[in-house]
Amino acid sequence: MQAVAKIESDIAAMIARRPPPLGEAERQQLIALGADLERAWSHPAATAATRKRILRTAISEVIVRRDGAIIHAVLHWQGGDHTELRVKQRLNAAGRHNPRILDDTIALMRELARLMPDRQIARLLNRIGIATGYGNAWTQERVRGFRNHHEIAGYRDGEWAERGEITLEAAAKIVGVCNMTALRMLRRGDIKGRQVCPGAPWVIKTADLTGFTGRKRSGPPLTPNPDQQAFDFQ
């Protein structure tokens, strides 16, 4: 009985807080505004919340599709009528939709996502001077959002090994030289490798290093002097 009494008390309090019913003048004013939606929308006292309520009250559904640079929208009104709209997207000077994303940037992101995590990708893109479509610097979150938008899978640990690929540092150990010597060998073509962009890690196939296995690091001194020492300048 106490629970029922509390509920009845709460209901009575809610009824007491109700605003008083509209007078005839206010009712006629609302009817006039309803007949002139544009006037109600543009009224100086109309807030963003008021306009949202107008939309929810007047519109049942909005269906949107894009055909190239044209956006097609169909507005279904509560009364059953519908309105079709065609809006042309504003393009930049290069004829692309804003924000401008170069095709080369998308291709580069696809390559880098197979080599390193998002945080490292952001650092590399900032270092080589590639900005986002809005001209901002890259962050880990922006790289992740870019990948998701263009359906590019994120980096996975172990991808390199699955593809039979190693880094320059790993290749240098196999060949038996320091990293700088391995880099010079790559640039001369002594070792086959590829680099997606300047600053990106070198990618080397393990199979291409078969001929270097067991190779000596340095040769004997060039003079017969037994006191002559051999220094491996890399």
What is the total tally of β strands? Answer: 5
Q: What level of helicity do the residues show?
A: 40-55%
Q: List low-pLDDT spans.
A: 216-222
Global outline: elongated
Mean pLDDT: 82
What sequence of helices (H) and strands (E) makes up the elements?
HHHHEEEHHHHEHHE
Count of helical stretches: 10
Structural Rg? 34 Å
Structural class: alpha+beta
Strand order of the largest sheet: 1-2-3
The largest pleated sheet is described as: 3 strands, antiparallel
Strand content: 5-15%
Distance between the termini: 92 Å
Structure write-up:
By secondary structure, the protein is an alpha+beta fold. 41% of the residues lie in helices and 12% in strands. It has ten helices and five strands. A three-stranded antiparallel β-sheet has the order 1-2-3. α6 (118-127) packs across α7 (140-149) and α9 (168-175) crosses α10. The protein is elongated, with a radius of gyration of 34 Å.
